[in-house]
Amino acid sequence: MENKQESRVEIQNVEFHVSYLDTLSGRIGHEEFSDRSAAERFAAAQLKDEDSWAVVDIVALQPARQQERARQLVA
Fold first, then answer.
1. Cβ distance 60 to 69 under 8 Å?
2. Which residue of 12, 16, 48, 60 has the smallest Cβ count within 10 Å?
3. Which range of residues forms the domain containing residue 42?
């Protein structure tokens, strides 16, 4: 049986990075999200034509990055 509190901690220790092709400018963009569903919605919105692509990566936060992220959320 999995410890639910431990699972919540693991989920809080990640963020979601979306890389995508902006076909209007021809540039690759990058956005960071703390919420998976928001990242997936953003990625889906970038798929505007047949040449578009978007990737959602789950990134584990290092302890220093976790503290920085917490400060951003509080501010």
1. no
2. 60
3. 4-74
